[in-house]
Amino acid sequence: MSISGLEKLDVWNKAMAFAVRVHKEVLPILPSEEKWSLGQQTRRSAQSIPANIAEGHGRFYYQDNVRFCYIARGSLEETLSHIVFARKMEYIPATLYQSLSVDGEALNKLINGYISFLKNSKQGANEPGASYTVRETSSEYIMDGETPPPSDSNNE
Length: 156
Hints:
Blueprint (H helix, E strand, L loop, with lengths): L2 H4 L3 H17 L11 H20 L4 H27 L5 H28 L35
Helix pairs in contact: 2-3, 2-5, 3-4, 4-5
């Protein structure tokens, strides 16, 4: 994939615009004591939304893409939570809060729609290795004072 392919993706464009808007309109008006705590948290979660959509888009296999979209959606919810907090603390005006809430809800719907599209289209389902799953066998835990179970090996 390339940036030109990513720029054709509406969900990524909207996520990027939302992140830029948070950076330009929210972060500069936070009080100085919040620049490094709330500001950094909000910055990272907002940047994570388009970044995870981009990473999933580059994976070629729909289940990986869906997984990264779930992460992007979680980052959106985190960002919105920071915005709610900023409003409750009266760091941002009600009009900005309301506008970002509406945009966040629209972006959430767009991400959910993209997830549905990916699940239905199953892009990359026929790629080599797509049918493999990773599974670990569980290991037994030995508590202090317990005797380990007998070994299955015949090396004795």
